[in-house]
């Protein structure tokens, strides 16, 4: 494409810039420095001359390190056709701006492209008047001023300058921030002005060549022509969803129809918002579900960025990638389940209990905490082994679980301690607790491992109690109850152990 042989092709970026005219190298080096600086700029675009050929360059950051510095940048060079009705020897124009200037400085090529003469200089009032006669510049200049004045705004801007006459040539205007002041505003910026032959968007061909070059990539790439509604889906994109070009037409509706109904609002609204206005930014990231051709659901990480806007700020093209993160999501869900569930008893964990309490804080509805402590666990462990102790804990958990509602929460928060959160009035809590005590009395008639529990209750019909204070009060009440019933539970557990093991258990054993 550039007329180079494989054995002489440049191996480094600096070597590539040696094939660029000296007048353009400085800007390209500045642009690359900005992209490598560690900001969140998703990519950059620029038109320039390389080895005597007019090219349009698209750069996209594929991977960043922990400090947000780009590690892998993928670029596509698109060969541009000579602009119609423009001198063949006119290269793309370059402009610069520093805060304090009324208007930007234009080089000779910018002047030629705009039809303002051949001498470089600052755009004056007469030049601006002539420009208004040839192009629809009011919206572009307004958008440019807002972009320059935005505090810590987007690092890159790309607009299309549309001619007033049908035979005119649209121009692609690009801008990049070079330096910001202490208020976050752009105090120096520069960019390019290039012919754009297709008035709806830059040629899709170059991006498609980029996508075809990346067929080995696991990510699925897409290229959305906003004006026409057509979308190019790469082969890896289609394969990810189990489709072909015939079953997944190259239109936006194919993507929308494949989105899970529960994720439709967030998955579609964000790209549409970004496409409608630069006020929402030029890039987006979203995780949602899409239907595979076999009917299953895949978790997709969708990323996209606007590669060009018209003078009103509306996106012309949006390009991006889809990554199948189903395995990662399933691992995350499994890990979340493990974190929220006590692995021994299957009831909720302390972590889940704390999240429930945090969510319930300040809701003003009834909330009671019942602290339940398993009596004699250490003694069972020592006389019968830890497997028997685990069985005792599981039986206690199952008994408690059987007497609470789905909206309540049972959690194991320590070795022998459980907490029940009841979201109901105190009268209902007392009835539930009475039913649990009745079940414990019924179990004493069995010959199996005895389950003895001590309870403490705290809470309010109006809620509003601090979570830490709620649990503290329930724990204090439980310890008082445990002290009152220690002798009786001591006798029952000792008698069962002696019958089961045939060995005497000391009446003063502190482990009871």
TrEMBL record:
One Pfam family this sequence matches: GGDEF
Location of the PAC domain: 284-337
E.C. no: 2.7.7.65
GO biological process: cell adhesion involved in single-species biofilm formation; negative regulation of bacterial-type flagellum-dependent cell motility
PROSITE patterns: GGDEF, PAC
Gene Ontology cellular component terms for the protein in this record: plasma membrane
GO terms for MF: diguanylate cyclase activity
Matching InterPro entries: Diguanylate_Cyclase, GGDEF_dom, Nucleotide_cyclase, PAC, PAS, PAS-assoc_C, PAS-like_dom_sf, PAS_fold_3
SMART domains the UniProt entry points to: GGDEF, PAC
Domain GGDEF: 365-494
Protein name per the record: diguanylate cyclase
UniProt organism field: Desulfovibrio piger ATCC 29098
